[in-house]
Design brief:
Layout: H1 31-39
Length: 41
Amino acid sequence: AYGEPRARSDAKEVHIFKLEEIPFEKLVFDHDRILKDYLLR
């Protein structure tokens, strides 16, 4: 990917976190599980 991330019609805000600083408890829907599954690969 390239450029600066921007919130659009599908997101109110955009944030970039270091892996160890991802606030999993604040993620909505199943996004915490999706990220955790990916990181465990």
